[in-house]
Specification:
- This protein is α/β, with parallel strands linked by helices.
- About 25% of the residues lie in helices and about 25% in strands.
- Strand 6 and strand 7 (about 95-100) form a beta hairpin.
- Helix 1 (about 15-25) packs parallel to helix 2.
- It is elongated.
Length: about 325
């Protein structure tokens, strides 16, 4: 068992965690990043990235994360391959324990563990991810300009994604397994009023149809949830919008979470309910969920952490006089 100590301990290595590390290292906090079960975060599973500022051509998600990691290491970040299984936030330095027994201690802790999209769990869905099947219309809708697309879901996210897609597609179908939406009424009103959106009630996706070769998704096979009758909907894009799982299980009982399980932070800040603990990226953001906003909140977390340590050191110095 080895104990690793640092001023700034960061949990998670997506755009939020690595941005926090870059700013933290440049502020002299010698951060340690514990990468977790998915080093690089969700962008490592994304192929074409066309909306990250600074690149006129399409870039690859894994390449972008490799560049962020290299930059973080270049300015003095240590990256550790470990998965945290236990946390102690009752006193500083905060103490985290990895699954191999290593201990990580930090004067401040930045949590950037992200959130995972919920999927339907179909084999055909897995096979066509990135080939017509997506869980983020804001990320990928641009690739379906002028094409027929479908959104699967019935909550706020699904309705918002369907409305967003009308910016690119003249033919958007929203598929819901029940006969009414869970979404807020104002969103439903906007949806029903939009001429480009069609709603299919009491339908669930039984299969994503692969056209073979390079064509990717060509249709959805639908099952009626009332009668069991099967039907087919020809589409080139299918967006699964049934919610997200924030990676906060480790912090239940240690930090305040909101009603959806995301880490609660002070408005306009990354400060959590525990002084010295900060949260950034998708683990605290259930609205935007973009790589660029995650990176932005990572910067905020590092600045908040640096100010916290400066204030703490000033108070200690004053008390010693």
């Amino acid at each position: 068992m080895t104990t690793h100590t640092t001023k700034m301990l960061i949990l998670g290595s997506g755009p939020a965690g690595l941005s926090a590390a870059i700013y933290g290292a440049r502020a002299g906090m010698s951060p340690i990043v514990v990468q977790g079960i998915q080093p690089g975060g969700q962008l490592t599973t994304t192929t074409d990235v066309e909306n990250y500022p600074g690149f006129k051509d399409v870039i690859q998600g894994p390449w972008l994360m490799d560049q962020m990691q290299a930059q973080a290491e270049h300015v003095g970040t240590r990256l550790m391959w470990d998965t945290i299984v236990e946390v102690d936030l009752t006193r500083r330095p905060f103490r985290l324990i990895g699954d191999g027994g290593d201990v990580y201690e930090g004067d401040v802790l930045v949590i950037a563990t992200g959130a995972q999209a919920k999927w339907l769990g179909l084999d055909s869905e897995e096979a066509l991810k990135g080939k017509g099947v997506s869980a983020c219309a804001t990320c990928d809708g641009f690739f379906y300009r002028g094409k027929k697309v479908a959104v699967i879901g019935g909550g706020n996210t699904a309705v918002e994604e369907a409305l967003y897609l009308t910016n690119h597609s003249p033919d958007v179908t929203l598929i819901h397994r029940r006969d009414s939406f869970r979404a807020e009424k104002i969103l439903q009103d906007r949806l029903f009023a939009h001429k480009s959106v069609n709603v299919l009630w009491n339908k669930e996706v039984a299969n994503f149809v692969d056209g073979g070769g390079t064509s990717g998704l060509v249709a959805l096979e639908l099952r009626d949830t009332v009668t069991g009758e099967m039907s087919r909907l020809d589409v080139e894009g299918g967006f699964v919008a049934i919610g997200h799982h924030p990676a906060t299980e480790l912090f239940r009982g240690h930090l305040e979470l909101d009603s959806d399980g995301y880490i609660a932070v002070q408005i306009g800040s990354t400060r959590t309910s525990v002084s010295g603990v900060f949260a950034c990226g998708d683990v605290m953001d259930k609205i935007y969920r973009q790589a660029v906003t995650a990176a932005g909140t990572g910067c905020m977390a590092a600045l908040d952490a640096e100010r916290f340590l400066a204030e703490a050191e000033f108070e200690l110095a004053e008390a010693a006089e």
